[in-house]
Design a protein that fits this description.
It is a single chain. The chain has 361 residues and is an alpha/beta fold. It is built from 13 helices and 13 strands. The chain is 36% helix and 15% strand. Strand 7, helix 7 and strand 8 form a beta-alpha-beta unit. It is elongated.
C-alpha cells in the first residue's frame, strides 16, 4: 500500500512537471505580446498568482523583494533565499539582515524548488511570501487641487490588462517622476507579483490608486484646474474628424500646467466616454510610412516616450540643463556628449551590475 501511494505521488509530480513545462519553455523563449497584444497573451500571464495559506502570494525577484521590505506595505510571512549560492553579499545580504531584524523566518530551498514555486519565472534566487498589494481607493486619497507648481504630472490608466505592460509602465513612471498613478477598477490588471517583477519593484514604492468612475474623476480634476491629456495612435478612422478634442504631437506639447496623462487599453485604447473627458489628445508621429498592423506602439513603449517628452520640460531635468548650457555657449562649439546624469536613483531601480542584468531585473 505504501509503495502504491509513493508511485501515485511520483506520477502526480511528473504530471505536474508536464503541465508546467510548456509555459516554462514559452517564458524562456522571451515571447511577449505585440501588435494586437491581448490576443497574444501567454496563458501564464493571465493565470492567478500562486497563493498559499492565509491569502498570501509569492513575490519573486531581488528588487521587488528588497523594495517591498523597505517600503513595509506588505505583511511578510517568510523569506526564501536560494541555497547553494557562494555567500550572500550586497542586496541579498541586506535582505537577510532586514528579515532577521524583523523576526521574519528565512528558508534556504534549492533552486529547483524555487523554480516550481515561481512557475519558472526569473526569481534570481529570492522569493517572499507576502500579503497582496492592492490599489488604494481614490476616495481615501482625498481631492487635492493642483497648487502652485504648474509642472505636476499624474498618470491615468484605463483597462491595462497585461501585467508585464503594467509593470513596465510603472517602472517608467517612477523613473521619470510621475507623482501618482490612477487606474480604472474595471477590466484592469491587479497588482500581482508579475507586475512587481516587470516594474523592477517600482510597484512596491509608488502611490497607485483606483476608481470606479474614471470619466467622472477626469472631469472633476479638469474643474480643479488640471489639464486632461489623453493619448491616441496615429490619427485614423477610429478618431472622428469632427471630434472637438484637438490632437497634437507629443513633441509640440507645452507642459505649463498640472497634467493628467491618460493611457488606454492595449487593444482598444481609450473608451469613448474617457476620450470625451479629455481636453487634448497626444500622439506619437511615426518616422516612416507604416504598413497595416504596425500603426501603433506597445502601450509601455508609448508610455515611456510620452512621459519623457513631457518630463524633459521639467526645470532641472538633465536634458533641459544641457540645452540651457548649450544656448549660452559659443555657436561654433559642439554640444558636449552626455556623460550620464549624476542623479541619486531609488535603491533597487538603478541599472545594477552586469551580473544582475544577466540574471534579470
Amino acid at each position: 500500500m505504501e509503495l502504491l501511494s509513493a508511485a501515485r505521488g511520483a506520477t502526480w509530480r511528473c504530471c505536474g512537471r508536464l503541465l508546467t513545462r510548456p509555459f516554462s519553455q514559452a517564458a524562456r523563449r522571451g515571447d511577449r505580446p505585440g501588435g494586437e497584444e491581448l490576443s497574444r497573451l501567454l496563458l501564464d500571464d493571465l493565470a492567478l498568482p500562486p497563493r498559499s495559506a492565509g491569502g498570501l502570494e509569492l513575490l519573486f525577484g531581488l528588487s521587488p523583494c528588497l523594495l517591498a521590505l523597505r517600503a513595509a506595505r506588505r505583511r511578510v510571512a517568510r523569506l526564501l533565499l536560494q541555497a547553494g549560492r557562494s555567500g550572500l553579499q550586497g542586496e541579498r545580504a541586506e535582505l537577510l539582515r532586514v528579515a532577521e531584524a524583523r523576526d521574519i523566518p528565512v528558508l534556504r530551498p534549492r533552486r529547483r524548488k524555487l523554480d516550481v514555486l515561481c512557475r519558472y519565472q526569473v526569481h534570481q534566487g529570492v522569493c517572499m511570501e507576502v500579503s497582496p498589494l492592492r490599489p488604494q481607493p481614490w476616495a481615501e486619497a482625498g481631492e487635492s487641487r493642483p497648487g502652485d507648481d504648474p509642472q505636476q504630472l499624474w498618470l491615468v490608466l484605463e483597462g491595462l490588462q497585461d501585467p508585464r505592460n503594467l509593470g513596465a509602465v510603472l517602472r517608467s513612471a517612477h523613473f521619470l517622476g510621475v507623482e501618482k498613478v490612477i487606474t480604472s477598477r474595471k477590466n484592469s490588471c491587479p497588482l500581482t507579483p508579475v507586475v512587481s517583477k516587470a516594474s523592477a519593484g517600482a510597484m512596491e514604492v509608488m502611490d497607485v490608486f483606483s476608481t470606479d468612475d474614471l470619466a467622472g474623476f477626469l472631469q472633476a480634476k479638469a474643474r480643479q484646474g488640471w489639464l486632461v491629456a489623453g493619448t491616441v495612435g496615429c490619427p485614423g478612422p477610429e478618431i472622428s474628424p469632427s471630434s472637438e478634442v484637438p490632437i497634437t504631437s507629443c513633441l509640440d506639447f507645452l507642459w505649463d500646467q498640472p497634467t493628467l496623462l491618460v493611457l488606454g487599453n492595449e487593444g482598444s485604447g481609450l473608451s469613448r466616454e474617457v476620450q470625451a473627458s479629455c481636453q487634448l489628445l497626444l500622439t506619437i508621429l511615426p518616422g516612416r510610412q507604416l504598413p497595416p498592423g504596425l500603426e501603433s506602439l506597445n502601450v509601455s513603449v508609448a508610455a515611456g516616450i510620452l512621459l519623457h517628452s513631457i518630463c524633459s520640460q521639467r526645470k532641472g531635468f538633465p536634458v533641459e540643463q544641457k540645452r540651457e548650457q548649450h544656448l549660452l555657449q559659443d555657436p561654433q562649439e559642439p554640444w558636449p556628449l552626455s556623460e550620464g546624469p549624476s542623479l541619486t536613483q531609488h535603491p533597487g531601480l538603478c541599472s545594477g551590475s552586469a551580473k544582475q542584468r544577466q540574471d534579470g531585473d
